[in-house]
Amino acid sequence: MSKEYWKLTFPGAGKTYSLHNHSEFSDGSGTLREICLAAKSAGIKVFGLSDHWVEPPEEGMDSESWAMDTGRLDEYTGTLLQLKRELDDDRFTLKIGLEVDFFFENIDAVLKRLADYPLDYLIGSVHYAGIFPVDYQAADWLPLSDEEKSEICRIYWEKLLGAAERKEFTFLGHLDLPKKFGLIDNGAYFPQAVKVLDVLAGNGGAIEVNTAGFFKECHEQYPAIDILKAAFKRKIPVVVNADAHSPEHLQRNFPEAYQILQHAGYPVME
Fold first, then answer.
1. Burial level of 8, CB count in 10 A (0-12/13-18/19+)?
2. What pLDDT does residue 107 have?
């Protein structure tokens, strides 16, 4: 039996949610306490920490430079449990999460190991196509031919489809991440996105509107509006997140994201 994690319901989380956030435990800049205090001060009602969790199935991925040290999970969850006891009240709820990189080779073992920890939710994400880092830097993409870019995107969407099939993930992160540097035709992969959405619709999965894309070369949220419209048609829950890596970014560009959600058909709840 897989662990039952927190599930989002349609139409999705309202304006007082923020669930995709990083601390100095991975590649963020603030301590857990600093970020939680900032979230409560900002009036966020349901707030989650979701530092990167990566267990590479092969060498050459260099994830240790940006993901949590796997020996620190007890410290991470213990600190957040203490903060939850201190800060939770009728205006603020702290949720404990992780952003988990999906690999076909070891996902069963990874999820089994994480089930032993007091985690409320898991974000399913893909950052690697093979050992190629999809979102590390534009310089990794620039030497590639169109055929090579297409193959990376094929692998990316194939892995994301695999992540969508796992009911352990509360939602999938930054659904069309390969567009980050503005170097691919993102619309060409809409059919792959629809396959992912169909699987999510069938197993109660959810997605996010990730506002970090506004500040990257793609200059738009993840995912694109056409994907959001398709998600709404399938009644897939959605939550707006900043993918914040510093306390001041916890609700960055949320007003724009809610306008885009409304354009896609979603009602915006308070």
1. buried
2. 98
In the chain, the amino acid numbered 186 is N
Mean pLDDT, 10 residues at a time, over the chain (270 residues)?
88 92 97 98 98 96 94 98 98 98 98 98 98 97 98 98 98 98 97 98 97 97 98 98 97 96 87
Do 54 and 61 form a contact (C-beta atoms < 8 A)? Answer: yes
* Contact between 110 and 55 (Cβ < 8 Å): yes
Identify whether 31 is part of a domain: yes
Tell me the CATH number at 83. Answer: 3.20.20.140
Query: Largest alpha-carbon pair distance within the chain?
Result: 54
CA atoms within 13 A on the CB side of 231: 32
What DSSP line would sit under 204-218, residue for residue? T--EEEEGGGGGSTT
| Whether the predicted model's global pTM rises above the 0.85 cut | yes
Q: How far is CA 191 from CA 136, 151, 158, 194, 205, in A?
A: 25, 15, 12, 5, 18
Is 11 a member of any domain?
no
Phi, psi of 18 (to 5 degrees): -155, 110
